[in-house]
Amino acid sequence: ERLRGEDREHEAVRLARASEQAILDIEAFIEGRIPEYHASNRRYLTVAVGCTGGRHRSVYIADRLATRFVR
Under a CB-based contact definition with an 8 Å cutoff, are residues 26 and 49 in contact? Predict the structure, then answer.
C-alpha cells in the first residue's frame, strides 16, 4: 500500500530525510567554525537547534550533533 502525503508514516519519513540533510549542513557549518574558535582561544561553541514544536525533530538533531561533537 502506498502512503499518502498526509499519512503519519509518510510524514515521519519526510522529516527524517529533512533532518538528516539539516544535520549534515549544520555539521559542515560547525566544522568550518572550529578552527576560528581554536585560533581565538575560545573553549566552547554554543549551538541552538529549534523547530515549531520542539519535541521531535529538534531533539533528534540536537542528540545527533551532541554525539558527533561532544567529547
Answer: yes
Tell me how far CA of residue 67 lies from CA of 8, 27, 61, 64, 71, in angstroms.
Answer: 27, 11, 10, 5, 8
- Residue 62 in grid coordinates: 540536537
Tell me 53's DSSP state.
S
Distance CA 22, CA 13 (A): 14
Segment 16-69, tens digit of pLDDT: 777 788 889 999 999 999 999 989 999 888 888 887 776 677 888 888 899 998
Give the model's pLDDT for residue 8: 65
Q: How far apart, in whole angstroms, are the C-alpha atoms of residue 62 and residue 39?
A: 25
Strand segments, DSSP code E, in the chain are: none
Displacement of CA 61 from its chain's centroid (Å): 3
